């Protein structure tokens, strides 16, 4: 199908936050500079066979040294909002004790640099880079890690809490628990379901403790947690496929949504925990302690939704998980993920109808395509333009259908270290030429610039002019 991709004005409020997103470990590099301590990812990338081509993120796109140029480029593209994450190991090298002053200085300069350019920062406290010292003491399967995170959050609230209005506690607890401790795909690369389930609860507890720490110190800021929410549907109308879909939905989505927004693990989630011999009844010595759910479900100000996949689920007794998953067509991306924007609309509507009436932010959405520079110094990525045009419109469709969506952040600003895929998967609107590290905006970056300008034509013109004058 052809679609007119000329950006036009969507029916959304003028203050809708259009942004781009990144994460510290994927872009900063400088892993042994500025007093930073090692994180579980520094360890993981050094283990043979973990990362495509054995690549590391020791340098990645060198944002630690190039941040000012990167923010200049963001301002030139007229991008009004930027979601970034703080490296826990840069701020608190061993995961306990006073903050590292060089780390604080780096992030203060970065956040002040956003404001100087008229860019609103949205800050994530944890995007997977646990200090190695805390993994050595048990990592997320250990309850103490949640308390360390609460202390870290309190120190960050004091040191940096004046520099952003929106704070996200944890990015995608499903990845930091199941992908990391059960599926072995992400650091620390363990394959133990019980560990993963314990990690899941402790990540939620860590969210709640960080929320309380910020509330006490920074009553004016807006807080939320970001969950990865896949659109899951049965592959057929058979009862077996419907049952398999319900189980997948519990494992991927409901484990993390119910405790935060409903204040309890529901019966279905309890059954899945039970498969690992774990009870979710609150007790004095079990995984879920008395009072945990009150901490986890304390009110937030918004809900973060990361959305990538649109999955059909079939029961498959032959497979170890009992399910077979395929993505809904078309799947033009290098990861074989879909370009089906109605999935984003459906996920947003589901979260708002089933889980929370809070404002929603799409804190990540994007795709990877095999795109390469052409000889004219431009990078043509028509598939990404098509993807962005559809998924931004899906936000307006969700609002029209009743969801309170307030922002959309494209993943990612720059090509970067795509975790276990190393540099082989490019999600950026801006191309990075390895190893020169030159930044070249792709056609999608220019499309997004024009799209954003079209959303806020008058207000935006004034803002871009101010920012250009300030640079
Ligand atoms: C997100 N899935 O992770 C992360 O937040 C980013 O750091 C990452 O670079 C980006 O997506 C692209 O992969 C995901 O299994 C992990 O559907 C898993 C899935 C999707 C996104």
From TrEMBL:
The active site is at 172 (proton donor), 364 (nucleophile). Substrate binds at residues 26, 127, 171, 308, 411, 418-419. GO terms for cellular component: cytosol. This is Beta-glucosidase. It comes from the Bacteria. NCBIfam families: BGL. It comes from Agromyces albus. Its EC number is 3.2.1.21. One of its GO terms (molecular function) is beta-glucosidase activity. It catalyses: Hydrolysis of terminal, non-reducing beta-D-glucosyl residues with release of beta-D-glucose. Belongs to the glycosyl hydrolase 1 family. Keywords: Carbohydrate metabolism, Cellulose degradation, Glycosidase, Hydrolase, Polysaccharide degradation. One of its GO terms (biological process) is cellulose catabolic process.
